[in-house]
Amino acid sequence: MRNISIKTWVETGLWIAFGLFGLYLCLDLVADSQTGFLAAEDEGAFTAATWPRLIFGMIIVIAFVNLAVAWFNGEIPSEESVDSEGGFIQQNIKLIGFVSASLLYGILLAWFGFYLLTPFFILAILLLSGERRWFPLLGLAVGLHLLLVVLFYRVLGMTLPTGTGVFYNISASFQNFLYSIF
After folding, report:
1. b/e per residue, 100-114, with b = 16+ CB within 10 A?
2. How far apart are the first and last CA of the chain?
3. What does the pLDDT look like over 159-177, one tens digit per residue?
């Protein structure tokens, strides 16, 4: 067992917090009137919320596996960490950006809907990754969005969040247009 860097602890903690927050949003927990404990309303049912639950659960498991690998195998210091100057925030700005964008996406998805918010989320992730060319940015954002719509709606037969208020109307129009094409 070797020392684990603060960066690995913080990264693991952020991913676990993200996964737990996502599970909290997906589980629709209610208090059981007989026991007083929290329980999911649709126990055992395969619903549209099952996939996000699995993904958030996998994020938590992978974060713990990453921590265990670092614990037992040790960490190999990269050239960036040895030669870099600046504070903790400056060294981990991309990680903080990815986690912040993902949390913001998860929070805003209920209001804006999948159809409107997902292309902007993909653009944000690509920009954080360092892509600056406009053709690949727009092509990947639109292409991945359409691929996800086809995958979830046509292949898996799942409905996607459409948002609320005026965003529902915009999403419904976009949804009808996409469904007429595919």
Report:
1. ebbeebbebbeebbb
2. 53
3. 777 888 888 888 888 878 8
Strands (E), the chain: 29-31, 38-40
The pair of structure tokens assigned to 61 is 């498991």
pTM over 0.85: no
Q: How far, in Å, CA of 26 to CA of 15, rounded? A: 16
Distance CA 108, CA 34 (A): 34
d(CA 94, CA 75): 20
Contact indicator for 162, 171 with CB cutoff of 8 Å: yes
Sign of CA dihedral 20, 25, 28, 34: positive
Q: Which of 9, 21, 27 is nearest to 64 (CA)?
A: 9
Q: What is the pLDDT of residues 115-130, one digit of tens each?
A: 888 899 999 988 988 8
Alpha-carbon distance 22 to 15, whole Å?
10
**Closest Cα partner for 152 from 126, 177, 178, 173?**
178
CA distance 163 to 172: 9
Strand ranges for 23-179 from DSSP E: 29-31, 38-40
Tokens coding 96: 């903080």
Q: Would you state the structure tokens that stand for residue 80, as one six-digit string?
A: 């960036």
